[in-house]
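Task: sequence design from structure.
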């Protein structure tokens, strides 16, 4: 793969998350959204990575953080789940622009559901259909390949499932040719920033592809061996004890400078990560800002 370039600086603002920091005015929701700002020379690109599930709460937090929706250049949707994609049309309307790249895996709009505790569609909701995204100013870039947003900032594309212990984490289904099949969430993509003199920063939203698989793919794509940070949801909430242990061991090997994890990471995994990484671990909350 060609050299993917480096950013001079990266800024990450958590716009939505399941929790908020102590004594802050932000609104929480089950779901995540990040503003990723890539800075390279005099070029700055502002990428909205997922939109949570409640656009009113998201836009409220954006106002508190002085983020003007019309300054967003592109949207990346990490996977189809409603807690990451619901309200993307509302956000596009608020941005009021045309031809905004909306980047996702090509399977984003498939039927995607749970049967426990009851039949429930959990994919992209009707209000955020392909047609509505396009008529609200979005231009869809649907691909399983990695896509460069600017040199130093790219999507992972569909993540190779290399490890033998990482799991999707939920019993999800789809229908193909009239037959009900298990759905391994192949559309789960993450963002990778390669920052000059620092290393790579991996931003996941749900991390259904497994954080070790995702980080390895990010390292391969950028040909970088130093992981500066991992931030996002690691979907370990229902991981078995041995799998959780393996994940923490492998993460220790990858030796990221810091980890900030929440959303679907789960309390137990957060505890294990804290015990392994101490002050290099922190829980994810809406309203947090990071500069690399
Ligand atoms: Fe999620
Ligand atoms: Fe998810």
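Answer:
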């Amino acid at each position: 793969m060609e050299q993917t370039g480096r950013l001079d600086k990266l800024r990450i603002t958590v716009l939505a998350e399941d929790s908020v920091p102590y004594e802050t005015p932000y609104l929480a929701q089950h779901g995540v959204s990040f503003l990723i700002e890539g800075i390279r020379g005099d070029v700055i690109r502002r990428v909205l990575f997922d939109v949570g599930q409640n656009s009113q709460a998201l836009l409220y937090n954006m106002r508190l953080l002085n983020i003007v929706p019309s300054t967003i250049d592109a949207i990346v949707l990490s996977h189809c789940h409603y807690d990451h994609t619901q309200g993307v049309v509302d956000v596009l309307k608020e941005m009021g622009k045309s031809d905004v790249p909306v980047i996702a895996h090509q399977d984003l709009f498939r039927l995607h559901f749970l049967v426990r505790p009851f039949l429930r569609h959990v994919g992209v909701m009707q209000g955020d259909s392909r047609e509505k995204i396009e008529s609200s100013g979005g231009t869809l870039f649907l691909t399983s390949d990695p896509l460069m947003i600017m040199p130093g900032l790219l999507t992972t594309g569909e993540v190779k499932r290399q490890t033998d212990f990482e799991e999707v984490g939920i019993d999800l289904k789809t229908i193909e040719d009239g037959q009900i099949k298990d759905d391994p969430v192949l559309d789960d993509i993450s963002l990778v920033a390669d920052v000059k003199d620092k290393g790579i920063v991996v931003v996941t939203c749900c991390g259904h592809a497994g954080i070790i698989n995702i980080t390895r793919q990010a390292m391969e794509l950028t040909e970088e061996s130093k992981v500066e940070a991992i931030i996002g949801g690691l979907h370990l909430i229902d991981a078995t004890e041995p799998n959780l242990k393996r994940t923490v061991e492998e993460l220790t090997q990858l030796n990221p400078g810091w980890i900030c994890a929440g959303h679907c990471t789960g309390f137990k995994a957060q505890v294990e990560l804290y015990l392994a990484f101490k002050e290099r671990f922190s829980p994810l909350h809406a309203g947090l800002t990071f500069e690399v």
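The chain has one domain: 9-286.
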